[in-house]
Write a structure and sequence with these properties.
The chain is 45% helix and 18% strand. The chain contains 18 helices and 18 strands. A 7-stranded mixed beta sheet has the order 13-12-11-14-15-17-16, sandwiched between helices. Strands 3-2-4-1-5-6 form a 6-stranded mixed beta sheet, sandwiched between helices. A 5-stranded parallel beta sheet has the order 8-7-9-10-18, with helices on both faces. α12 crosses α13 and α17 crosses α18. Bound molecules: NADP nicotinamide-adenine-dinucleotide phosphate (NAP). NADP nicotinamide-adenine-dinucleotide phosphate (NAP) binds next to α12, α13 and α17.
Length: 567
């Protein structure tokens, strides 16, 4: 085995175990073994080892049973702050192994490494202490406004240092120290010339999980973390009296980390397209899902079978840890899948459902939130009752944007190259928005001009690489207008409106928001929805939720950043 140790935690490396089967039983002891890196406070007040930091007789008996049952080749325990002498002489656990003739070793961070790491932190600690002394000195003087200001700044700096030191100390106490403990176990295992080696390691409760996963990563053959529960019964009736009879029972249970500490969040991804969108899958992992199961070419019938099969598998309590994501370019199919999924689930077997066909809902939500905010900035009024034109609004993005603006109380027009399509889609979305949205034919620049000339907000939602509003139309426009384009593939949907524009006046009183600005907010909205659905338990996360999330994200942008200086 090759272990590289250079005393700097970043360069500490452990090599996986090869050619040997290592069986480690990690027994959690009844208390945390004291260990610290920094000498805090006054030297004379150095913390003493508490007399209750000691294994109980019942725990020692339990260990004896473990030894006779498992015949370990060796045993280990973290040394902590004890000397090696005390580790062997004043440790009841050492006696158990000695009597059982099992080699017993202390394992812990190497002293040189520890002093190196402690010295760098101690410098910070000393400096923080000198700041605290200075603050106390200033307090003892007559405090005027100038001194108070200095005190405030020094306090903020000392708080910052304190947090930094604690964070670093935590990292060293767990990440770095656990590597040293594992190194000790592996070294002793390697010194034994047997193919299968068994070790019993006695650990503080807070390190059981870290050591278990580290040993598993290093190919240990079998790692069993054992939690020893202790029941204590005593004979005294009133509290505060020393009991004359005490009964202790220790009961081991295998710690199953996955079930106890973390229930995996599973996303079932139902895509009408093939393959299922890698974009949405990557976003979902980034939002914290543990497992994503993608299905492609999904239709309503298939969705029903999948949901029926999945919904009972995790029981009533854990069904909320399963989410569904409905995606794909077939807007109609996605809507049908949503209806089927809603009908298939029933209380209490309900899970959150995210709906975002080919990113259309999150894109529309971002576009509407940005233009709504933009209109407020340039026209200094609400969008309510204003005229909104959604150019080429017959696709998924245009439909969702039209519905969202209609729900905001705007006068919405949706265009298509065909009057028939414009009218039929307008009828469909009007039903969903529960208010009238008008369908208009606009297939030539003249027709486009006719419908947009008195509009306040114009959304270009045409297919990729299609220009809907040429310069000749833009140049003729009068009055304040906010125009957004979601097409990022050249040529743009609106001539002269560049993808990265974010409320830029690109023609007199015409303010443009480009596809990149929309796309950036869209990505944040999608992540926000995924995170919310991951922990929501149930609910439908569609364009309505996406829009509220987009508005919230835009508001967050305006939270003030405070920067002050003292010198
Ligand atoms: N920025 C982002 O993050 C993001 C995310 C998703 C989508 N997008 C973009 O958003 C836009 C809309 O997406 P979508 O899926 O809703 O679009 P889509 O369904 O592909 O197209 C929308 C409409 O464009 C019209 N159209 C198609 N070809 C045309 C042409 N040659 N001339 C004029 N009109 C034409 C069609 O309407 P009619 O046939 O009725 O005229 C169609 O219904 C696309 O540009 C897409 O790339 C951006």
């Amino acid at each position: 085995m090759m272990v590289e140790v250079r005393f700097l935690e970043e360069e500490f490396r452990l090599e996986p175990l090869t050619g040997k089967k290592l069986n480690v039983i990690i027994v959690e002891k009844e208390y945390e073994e004291p260990w610290w890196l920094l000498e805090r406070g006054v030297k004379e007040l150095k913390p003493q080892r508490s007399p209750i930091k000691k294994p109980s007789l019942a725990f020692c008996e339990f260990l004896k049973k473990m030894v006779s049952e498992y015949s370990p080749d060796f045993a280990t325990e973290e040394l902590g702050m004890r000397s090696r002498d005390k580790f062997y002489k004043e440790n009841p656990v050492a006696k158990v192994f000695e009597e059982s003739k099992v080699p017993f070793y202390p394992v812990d961070m190497d002293e040189k490494a520890k002093s190196y790491l402690a010295s760098t932190l101690q410098e910070r600690e000393n400096f923080k202490n000198s700041l605290i002394e200075e603050i106390s000195k200033l307090h003892s003087q007559k405090v005027n406004a100038e001194t108070q200001k200095k005190i405030d700044y020094l306090t903020a700096y000392a708080q910052y240092l304190d947090e930094e030191i604690e964070e670093k100390e935590r990292e060293i106490s767990f990440d770095v120290r656990e590597k040293w403990i594992v190194k000790g176990i592996l070294d002793y295992a390697n010194s034994i010339t047997k193919d299968t080696v068994t070790c019993i390691h006695i650990s503080s409760p807070s390190h059981v999980e870290g050591l278990t996963s580290l040993l598993k990563t290093l190919n240990a053959w079998n790692v069993t973390p054992l939690k020893v529960e202790k029941k204590v019964q005593f004979s005294e009736a009133s509290t505060g009296k020393i009991p004359n009879s005490i009964e202790i029972e220790v009961k081991p249970t295998v710690k199953r980390e996955i079930l106890v500490t973390k229930i995996p969040r599973i996303l079932i991804f139902l895509d009408t397209d093939e393959p299922a969108s890698p974009f949405d899958i990557c976003q979902s992992y980034d939002a914290g899902f543990d497992v994503i199961i993608p299905y492609s070419k999904v239709d309503a019938e298939m969705a029903k079978r999948i949901v029926q099969d999945a919904m009972f598998s995790r029981g009533e309590k854990n069904v909320k840890y399963t989410c569904y994501f409905l995606g794909g370019s077939d807007f109609g199919k996605v809507k049908a899948i949503l209806e089927t999924v809603k009908k298939t689930m029933f209380p209490p077997f309900e899970s959150p459902v995210i709906v975002d066909p080919r990113g259309a809902y999150t894109t529309a939500a971002a576009m509407v939130a940005l233009t709504e905010e933009g209109w407020g900035k340039v026209a200094k009024e609400e969008v309510k009752k204003r005229k909104v034109v959604v150019l080429a609004g017959t696709g998924p993005v245009g439909r969702a944007a039209a519905i969202l603006y209609a729900k905001l109380g705007c006068d919405v027009y949706l265009t298509s190259r065909s009057l028939e399509r414009a009218e039929s889609v307008a009828k469909e979305v009007s039903e969903e928005a529960k208010t009238e949205i008008k369908g208009v034919k606009a297939s030539s620049p003249e027709e486009v001009y006719e419908v947009v000339k008195d509009a306040h907000i114009i959304l270009a939602t045409g297919a990729a690489g299609v220009m809907l509003m040429p310069k000749t139309v833009v140049e003729k426009l009068k009055g304040v207008k906010v125009v957004a384009d979601v097409n990022a593939v050249p040529p743009p949907g609106v001539e002269g409106l560049k993808p990265k524009f974010n409320l830029k006046e690109f023609a007199p009183s015409i303010y443009g928001i480009g596809a990149l600005a929309v796309g950036q907010l869209k990505n944040r909205v999608e992540r926000e929805i995924l995170s919310a659905a991951r922990t929501a338990g149930k609910g439908i996360f569609d364009y309505n939720y996406a829009f509220t999330a987009a508005q919230k994200l835009l508001r967050e942008k305006t939270f003030p950043t405070i920067k002050m200086r003292y010198s």
